Amino acid sequence: MKFKLVLATAAALTMAACGQQNEAAPTEVPATPAAPAAPMAVEAPTTPTAVEGTITIEDAWCRPTPNGAKAGGCYVILTSSVDDTLTGVATAQADMAQVHEMKMEGGVMKMAHLAKGLAMPKGQRTELKPHGNHIMLMGLKAPLVAGQTVKIDLTFANAGTKSVDFAIRTPPVVGGEE
Ligand SMILES: [Cu+2]
User: Fold this and answer.
1) N or C: which end of the chain has fewer CB within 10 A?
2) Residue 116 is part of a domain; what is its CATH number?
3) Domain of 52?
4) Do residues 34 and 116 lie in contact, with contact meaning Cβ atoms separated by under 8 Å?
């Protein structure tokens, strides 16, 4: 009874910190409604009709969490040779991982889960960066330590899942934050 109560509180705190209200399943990333060709059903394991394309992944890194923070931000630059969508992220190092956007709400910058995924128009560099779209790791099982790496699975609507090593490092401070 007590255990249950504690758990619920912790979950509520995580949600609040993340600026979202009612997301139930932590490990499941909702399928993109825009991609009806790829149902998450338990049917035959036929590969969804994918367009031939390549994903270029640059500068994958995460900010260290030296103060025992339970959430961490990760960033990467993605370029797809065809139209694609980053539909979800996952890592063994955290209870939950999501793609977040930053948006103004009543004059306050808030982050929100991009439940429909992040569109990646072909040939365009899609940047996940500090103060912008980012990957959020929540419920970290261990701190993110500079010099180490975190393996994060990036799932794309077209290209499938790519396992990427993110370098944990402190962002360079050159004449201010940006
Ligand atoms: Cu976030």
Assistant:
1) N
2) 2.60.40.1890
3) 2-168
4) yes
